Structures are given as structure tokens and as C-alpha cells.
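Whiteboard transcription, Tuesday session. T.W. wrote the C-alpha cells on the left side:
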């Protein structure tokens, strides 16, 4: 006799499944969220196919060609544009501008004489119309519907027959006859599966807006990210108008591209050259500053690092950072003390970036070290200098990726000097000494370690052999 199916248990928070009941979810670590569900039947018979299988060489690729969305920065991130039949998931924090971006994409697509359907479940139709009037997004081929029922959304798709469908957001749409409330694990999976099925059968590009949790991850089941073809993250600082669109998953293009936007009162506009947003225009040389070159995807960006070092009256001096990794700053401070003789154990250290830029790449270590040394001794580095390189615990400088692209971008923006790590040495660990060359009219100085870089820029007054504190300097 056949054994009865074993009961299955599923987490109501993340959708994790297990064969036995547990008090704590093994995926999201939530307590009391695992509940019993009906076990699926293992007997599946053959069913009619929707389309006969053909040799892969006979499959047409013209139906899946890229179509421009009308927003160049979005096309850059997607790898060329919107693909018919693709499902795109756009996630971001509340108020970052997801709806404004997608309304602009829908309006630009409609201007290309492609019928577009915008379904909103979070706002009324009149609220979206007001935003469209403000941003200039009103067009005859842009259809708007305010629905929270999956069946009604499918009916709108049948009536309008759009080439682009925007659903804002997937957590607000409910599927009738499915357990749970809208936004739950089961509801989100059913709604997303139904919309993706329509996208594949009708060759419609579907863009789904997803909410995020307090830790920045996409809310709902993890399977949602597996179902869609593209996962995009829209991020930015609330105190800044600058926004960045990152690709986390992309089946049709690279996942290391970044799009830059400017969110203002008149809508959202693409920023093709965002470097000027992260560099301060100083009237003369200023101590405690240095410009770093970071890579956002495959795009080099220049960002200014600023540092302030003051004597501290506290037993434990403060270490405050903004836009920089605190652990990397602590490591750079330790290297400066051990290998450069800059003692800051009795000083408050403040380090930040300009314009809300976030520098998490190790290539910005050298710029941070130069800014800290310059602020410590109140010596301004030479004007028009960029510094890039990863600092090791032994004080050496390590090469960074895409160095030619970084140098070319710095030279294009008018910088006259760049300090970079030396090329790898010969077998045996011998690193070449400092060298000097010229690239595109910019002087490039290669140094082996951070102490040599500080001496080259004239912002150091101490060496390891003659240790001197900041007060003595």
C-alpha cells in the first residue's frame, strides 16, 4: 500500500519549507512562523503541451530584441533596454522615487507609440495623474488603472493589450481564493507567478515594484527573486537628490552596471556625468581633503574624501564616519600609526565624503590616508591630485582593478597628478621603487607603500624611524 503523504511545514514570513515542525525558521530565524501546509500530491500525469519542441537553432530571437525604454540610464543598467516577455523587479526604500522613475519610464515608452498600462495599488488614479502633470508624463498611449485585485488586473491586460505593464506594487495586489492577506508569502508568489505567466505568453514586459524590509532586503519570499528575470535596486540618501539604480540580477545583460539619476520637484532626470556631485570646489588648497576614484559597476566616479583631526578630551576619542566604512577607517589609522608614525590615539577623527557618496571599495584607502595625514599636520596636498590604492596591514599598496579606466576619467576631468600603487614586482617579492610617467597629459606616480605616497605628496612629517605624535608635529 502507498504511504500517505507526509505533512509539510512552511514559514509564513519567508516561505522556507521543512518536513517537520520547528519553532524557529531556518532561513529568516523568525520564531513561531512555521505552520503546517497541505502536502502536494506526487502523482502527475502527462498533459497537452502549449507549443511543440523545436531545435534550438530554429528558435527566433527577433521577438526578444531590446527595445529602448526612453531613459538612457535605465537602458544602460538593463544591458540595452526592455526585453519583450521579461519580468523586472524594482525594489527600494520608501520615498526613494520608485514610482516617479517608473512613471517616467511608462511615459517615455508611450511616446514611442507603444501602449503602456500602469497599475497602481498604493495610490488613487488622481494622485498618479497629479504626479504625471508635474513631471510631464501625460500621454494618450499611457493607460492608468487603480486596482488591488489580481483578476481585475488581468482583465485590464486583456482590454488594453499593452507592450509594457507596470505594477506598483506587487505587495498590494491580492489573488482571490488564495490563503493569506495581500503581501503575504503565498499571495505574493501567486500574484507574481500569474503576472509572469501573462508576460511570457503575451510577450509583455512586466515591471513589478517590491517593498524592502528594514535591513534593505526585498520583502516577501526569496523565490520572488528567482522567478523574475531582472532584479534592480533603487537607492539614495534622503538628504540628497542623487539616486543610483543597481542591477543585482540580469539574465539579459551585465550585473555590474549602475544608473545615476537626479530626483527633483519636476521629476527624475538621468545624470550622465555624476562626478561633479561628489567633488567640492575649493578656493585654493585645503588641508584634510583628497580625491578618490571609485568604480560603480563599470563606470569610474571621482569622490572627495574629507577628514578632520582634533585633540580629544575624552578617554576614548571619537571615530565618526559618513559615507565610509568605519572598520576600514580604523585599519587605515592603525597603519598610519605603525608604519608612518602618525599617532592619533588621543585625537578625535572625523571622516566623510562629499555629496552623500558611499565609498565601500578598498581602492579608496589611499585617499583616506592622505586626507587623514593632511588634516593631522594641516598641510594641504598639491592641487589637482587623485589617489587610489588598497592599503595592506604591512603598509604596502595593492593594485586596484580597472586602473586605466580610472586614470582616463581623472585625466578627462582635468586632474594633473595621480598617485597609484606600483606594478607587481619580480618573482621573489621585490617591488619596484617609485616611478613616474605621463598618461593623457597627467603625471602618474607609482609608489610601493603608503609612507612613500605621503612623502611624495608632502603631507607627512614623520616616519617609522622617527615617531612623532600629531601634537609634536
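and on the right, the sequence the group agreed on:
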Amino acid at each position: 500500500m502507498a504511504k500517505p503523504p507526509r505533512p509539510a511545514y512552511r514559514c509564513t514570513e519567508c516561505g522556507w519549507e521543512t518536513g517537520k515542525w520547528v519553532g524557529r525558521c531556518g532561513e529568516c530565524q523568525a520564531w513561531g512562523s512555521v505552520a503546517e501546509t497541505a502536502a502536494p500530491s506526487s502523482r502527475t500525469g502527462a498533459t497537452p503541451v502549449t507549443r511543440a519542441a523545436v531545435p534550438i537553432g530554429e528558435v527566433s530571437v527577433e521577438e526578444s530584441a531590446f527595445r529602448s525604454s526612453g531613459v538612457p540610464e535605465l537602458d544602460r543598467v538593463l544591458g540595452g533596454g526592455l526585453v519583450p516577455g521579461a519580468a523586472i523587479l524594482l525594489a527600494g526604500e520608501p520615498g526613494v522615487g520608485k514610482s516617479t522613475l517608473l512613471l517616467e519610464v511608462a511615459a517615455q515608452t508611450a511616446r514611442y507609440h507603444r501602449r503602456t498600462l500602469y497599475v497602481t495599488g498604493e495610490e488613487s488614479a488622481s494622485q498618479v495623474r497629479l504626479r504625471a502633470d508635474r513631471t510631464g508624463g501625460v500621454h494618450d498611449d499611457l493607460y492608468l488603472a487603480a486596482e488591488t485585485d489580481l483578476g481585475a488586473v488581468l482583465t485590464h491586460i486583456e482590454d488594453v493589450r499593452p507592450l509594457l505593464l507596470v505594477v506598483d506594487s506587487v505587495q498590494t495586489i491580492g489573488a482571490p481564493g488564495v490563503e493569506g492577506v495581500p503581501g503575504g508569502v503565498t499571495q505574493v508568489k501567486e500574484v507574481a507567478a500569474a503576472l509572469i505567466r501573462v508576460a511570457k505568453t503575451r510577450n509583455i514586459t512586466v515591471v513589478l515594484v517590491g517593498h524592502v524590509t528594514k535591513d534593505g532586503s526585498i520583502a516577501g519570499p526569496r523565490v520572488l527573486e528567482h522567478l523574475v528575470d531582472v532584479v534592480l535596486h533603487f537607492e539614495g540618501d534622503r538628504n540628497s537628490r542623487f539616486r543610483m539604480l543597481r542591477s543585482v540580477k540580469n539574465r539579459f545583460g551585465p550585473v555590474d552596471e549602475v544608473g545615476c539619476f537626479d530626483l527633483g520637484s519636476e521629476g527624475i532626470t538621468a545624470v550622465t556625468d555624476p562626478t561633479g556631485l561628489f567633488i567640492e570646489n575649493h578656493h585654493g588648497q585645503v588641508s584634510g581633503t583628497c580625491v578618490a576614484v571609485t568604480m560603480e559597476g563599470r563606470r569610474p566616479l571621482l569622490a572627495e574624501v574629507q577628514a578632520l583631526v582634533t585633540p580629544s578630551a575624552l578617554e576614548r576619542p571619537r571615530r565618526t564616519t559618513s559615507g565610509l566604512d568605519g572598520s576600514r577607517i580604523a585599519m587605515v589609522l592603525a597603519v598610519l600609526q605603525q608604519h608612518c608614525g602618525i599617532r592619533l590615539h588621543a585625537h578625535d577623527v572625523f571622516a566623510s565624503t562629499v555629496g552623500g557618496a558611499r565609498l565601500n571599495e578598498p581602492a579608496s584607502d589611499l585617499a583616506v590616508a592622505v586626507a587623514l595625514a593632511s588634516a593631522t599636520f594641516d598641510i594641504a596636498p598639491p592641487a589637482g591630485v587623485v589617489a587610489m590604492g588598497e592599503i595592506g596591514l604591512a603598509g604596502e599598496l595593492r593594485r586596484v582593478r580597472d586602473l586605466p579606466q580610472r586614470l582616463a576619467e581623472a585625466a578627462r576631468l582635468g586632474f594633473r597628478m595621480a598617485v597609484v600603487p606600483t606594478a607587481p614586482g619580480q618573482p621573489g617579492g621585490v617591488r619596484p621603487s617609485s616611478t613616474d610617467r605621463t598618461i593623457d597629459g597627467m603625471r602618474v606616480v607609482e609608489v610601493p607603500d603608503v609612507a612613500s605616497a605621503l612623502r611624495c605628496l608632502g603631507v607627512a612629517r614623520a616616519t617609522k624611524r622617527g615617531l612623532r605624535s600629531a601634537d609634536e608635529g
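Someone added at the bottom: Residues 1-39 form one domain.
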